[in-house]
Amino acid sequence: MRFVITGNPITKKNSQQILVNRKTGKPFISPSSKYKAYEKEAVRQLLLQNVRGYSEFDFPIDTPVNV
């Protein structure tokens, strides 16, 4: 199988922002809005490729896979 995600990748770890929880006032780390947009677009592209290409039943993967 081959899947291609077009566009410039945005790293999750290096694109973080510190936000504050409104209820508790405690800070937390969240991915940047650019990363969230990239992730959404990547998922959309992968779903389109899966619909056009393979289904999960065409080639069952029965062994562990590293991606």
Description of the molecule:
By secondary structure, the protein is an alpha+beta fold. Helices cover 30% and strands 15% of the residues. The protein has 1 helix and 2 strands; from the N terminus they run E-E-H. The chain has one helix at residues 33-52, and strands spanning 16-20, 27-31. The protein has a two-stranded antiparallel sheet. The model has no long low-confidence stretch (mean pLDDT 82).
Protein traits:
two-stranded antiparallel ribbon, alpha+beta, 2 strands
How is this structure best summarized?
This protein has 67 residues and is an alpha+beta fold. It has one helix at residues 33-52, and strands spanning 16-20, 27-31.
Describe the secondary-structure layout.
Layout: E1 16-20, E2 27-31, H1 33-52
Antiparallel strand pairs: 1-2
Spatial order of the strands forming the largest sheet: 1-2
Distance between the termini: 12 Å
Q: What order do the SSEs take from the amino end to the carboxyl end, as H and E?
A: EEH
Shape designation: elongated
Q: What's the mean pLDDT score?
A: 82
Report the uncertain regions.
none
Name the beta content range: 5-15%
